[in-house]
Amino acid sequence: MSSARSDFGGLYGAAQMRRNRGLAPLFIVVAVFVAAYAYLSPGLLTIGGVSKFAQSWLPLALVSMAQATLMLTGGISLAIGPLVSLGAVVAATTMSGPLGAAGSIALVALIGLGVGLISGAIVVRLRLPAIVVTLAASFIIGGAALIVLPRPGGAIPAWFSDALAGNTPAALILLVLTLVAWKLYLATPLGLSLYAAGENAQAAYRSGVPVDLARIAAYAASGLLTVAAGLFVAAETGSGDPVIGSAFTLNSIAAAVLGGVGFLGSQGTMRGAVAGSLLLSLMINVMYFLGFPPVAHYLAQGIIIIVAVALPELTARRAS
Question: Considering the entire predicted model, what is its pTM?
Answer without folding.
Answer: 0.88
